[in-house]
Design a protein that fits this description.
This protein is mainly α and 213 residues long. It folds into 2 domains: 62 residues, Orthogonal Bundle (Arc Repressor Mutant, subunit A), CATH 1.10.10.10; 145 residues, Four Helix Bundle (Hemerythrin (Met), subunit A), CATH 1.20.120.530. It contains 10 helices and 3 strands. Strands 1-3-2 form a 3-stranded antiparallel β-sheet. Helix 6 crosses helix 8 and helix 9 packs antiparallel against helix 10. The two termini are 30 Å apart. Keywords: DNA-binding, Transcription, Transcription regulation. Pfam families: FCD (PF07729), GntR (PF00392). This is GntR family transcriptional regulator.
Length: 213
């Protein structure tokens, strides 16, 4: 029973229905699920182990996430770092690399269409890192990997609208087309625009959530 509650809450957190900062009260959840508080408490402990909630004294469980300021910082750094790395990496992308990237982009599109929330972040992160893997700058790539991990869950929030899903698919495809055509400066500009759009959309969502809190 605890596992079922944890799975339900996990999905709601990952799809943005329960955004960062929301308090999860054991008594309210027990009533909602029609169970006692014991399995609810166990479910919240499971979510805390997955770093999806933090159990705080006198407040109970609170959904975790990055702050608005951290989010703005993450996307500012990504907007600077990723285009620079692409300029170096794109020159070394082979036809096999492009084909593999298109397969990742296709799988990403399938998960968006199928609502497979848990895989969105994984495939998005893989697409961006594989695109830049030939940059031969391990420290920069390590930093970028951490930034992508930090904005994994917030990005799912941005992808919760059909328009942003379609735009993400189109922008990934456009970046690959430009790389394949060796129009590298245009590809870097397209990547920067993609990152900036996602960041702006997320900041707007966060500000709405804060205004409604």
């Amino acid at each position: 029973m605890a596992a079922a509650v944890a799975d339900s809450l996990r999905q709601r957190i990952l799809n943005g229905e329960l955004p960062p900062g929301v308090q999860l009260r054991q008594d309210a959840l027990a009533e909602q699920f029609g169970i006692s508080r014991i399995p609810v408490r166990e479910a919240l402990l499971q979510l805390e182990a997955n770093n999806l909630v933090k159990i705080m004294p006198h407040r109970g469980a609170v959904v975790t996430g990055v702050s608005l300021e951290e989010l703005e910082d993450i996307f500012q750094l990504r907007g600077q770092l990723e285009p620079q790395l692409l300029v170096v990496s794109a020159m070394h992308l082979t036809p096999a690399d492009i084909q593999a990237l298109r397969a990742v982009a296709s799988a990403y599109s399938d998960t968006l269409a199928g609502g497979e929330v848990l895989r969105w972040g994984e495939l998005n992160r893989r697409f961006h890192l594989d695109l830049l893997r030939h940059a031969q700058r391990p420290r920069s790539l390590s930093i970028l990997s951490g930034l992508l991990q930090d904005c994994d869950r917030p990005t799912r929030l941005q992808l919760s609208t059909v328009g942003d899903m379609a735009r993400a698919e189109q922008e990934h495809g456009r970046i690959l087309d430009l790389c394949e055509a060796r129009r590298i400066d245009e590809a870097a500009a397209a990547l920067r625009a993609h990152v900036e759009h996602v960041g702006a959309a997320l900041v707007a969502i966060y500000r709405r959530v804060l205004a409604d809190a």
